[in-house]
């Protein structure tokens, strides 16, 4: 079948961004040209590749299948061109997704090191919850994700690597909640206003399961999308916040509670889709964690 390679390139950018306007911006062509290219490709393949609506663009099953083959093909071509041109500098794009907490308190140092080592690689960081990150990886919208584990959206077709072990801790401003001198039972915690992440998070799933294991029902006072904001509210005495231990700083006015029933530990993991070939840039980023 005689199909212009440029059509596949346009398809790749629309499929990875799920946006005709964003694809046109990255390709430096008009949005109408992008739309026409996709229509031409769909006609030549005799299959619809996208589901279009006024609010969003989604890949059809045929589009998802095509992306699995187009993505590694284009990456190989880019790498071949670099080799033939004698340019030994790593180029391309690294697409990574992580929550704001993981980005700020764990990932940013690695991103800085990678950028300093490979300045010609374009780094695209997508911010989402750990559940949202797993969904982005499933759809091929990220090469790699760093997320919390356990994660209900992580399927068996994901390759994972443990990057860090951590524990979740309840912290309080003891000027308002004098609970730091004795071990606190989970049952006692329910007498205080609990500040925690929203229900659409791995942390919320994990905490509710931990309390359920002790036949307790967790009813938080406040549920937010930001761990940093939870800490801010705890500092002014609005409640007791639950956050990852790696967020805590020395000389903070917040004190971790000593729990009589310690919460199970969790992990930060690096995940990739085992049916999608990662770019050379993504491979180099993975190599940064080989010593962990």
Topology, pairings included?
Blueprint: H1 5-17, H2 20-27, H3 31-45, E1 50-52, E2 57-59, H4 61-84, E3 93-98, H5 100-117, E4 122-127, H6 130-138, E5 144-149, E6 158-166, E7 168-173, H7 186-189, E8 194-197, H8 202-212, E9 222-224, H9 227-235, E10 240-244, E11 254-256, E12 266-273, H10 280-287
Parallel strand pairs: 3-4, 3-5, 8-9, 8-10
Antiparallel strand pairs: 1-2, 5-12, 6-12, 7-10, 7-11
The first-to-last residue Cα distance is 47 Å
CATH topology name of the domain at 168-264: D-Maltodextrin-Binding Protein, domain 2
Q: What is the 3D shape? A: elongated
Query: For the largest beta sheet, what order do the strands appear in spatially?
Result: 4-3-5-12-6
InterPro entries: LysR_HTH_N, LysR_subst-bd, WH-like_DNA-bd_sf, WH_DNA-bd_sf
Keywords: DNA-binding, Transcription, Transcription regulation
Protein name: LysR family transcriptional regulator
Family: Belongs to the LysR transcriptional regulatory family.
């Amino acid at each position: 079948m005689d199909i212009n390679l440029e059509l596949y390139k346009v398809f790749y950018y629309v499929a990875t961004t799920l946006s005709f306007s964003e694809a046109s911006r990255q390709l430096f062509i008009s949005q109408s040209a992008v739309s026409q290219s996709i229509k031409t490709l769909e006609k030549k393949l005799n299959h619809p590749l996208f589901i279009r609506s006024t609010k969003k663009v989604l890949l059809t099953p045929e589009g998802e299948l095509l992306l699995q083959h187009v993505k590694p093909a284009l990456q190989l071509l880019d790498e071949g061109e670099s080799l033939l041109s004698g340019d030994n500098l790593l180029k391309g794009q690294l697409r990574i997704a992580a929550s704001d907490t993981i980005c700020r308190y764990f990932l940013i140092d690695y991103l800085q090191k990678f950028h300093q080592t490979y300045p010609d690689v374009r780094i695209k960081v997508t911010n989402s919850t750990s559940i949202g990150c797993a969904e982005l990886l499933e759809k091929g919208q990220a090469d790699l994700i760093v997320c919390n584990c356990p994660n209900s959206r992580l399927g068996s077709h994901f390759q994972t690597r443990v990057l860090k072990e951590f524990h979740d801790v309840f912290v309080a401003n003891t000027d308002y909640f004098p609970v730091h001198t004795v071990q606190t039972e989970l049952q006692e915690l329910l007498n205080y206003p609990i500040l925690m992440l929203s229900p659409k998070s791995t942390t919320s799933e994990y905490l509710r399961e931990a309390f359920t294991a002790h036949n307790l029902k967790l009813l938080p006072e406040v549920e937010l999308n930001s761990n940093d904001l939870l800490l801010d509210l705890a500092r002014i005495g609005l409640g007791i916040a639950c956050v990852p231990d790696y967020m805590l700083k020395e000389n903070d006015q917040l004190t971790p509670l000593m729990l009589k029933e310690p919460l199970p530990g969790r992990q930060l993991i690096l995940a990739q889709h085992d049916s999608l070939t990662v770019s050379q840039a993504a491979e180099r980023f993975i190599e940064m964690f080989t010593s962990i």
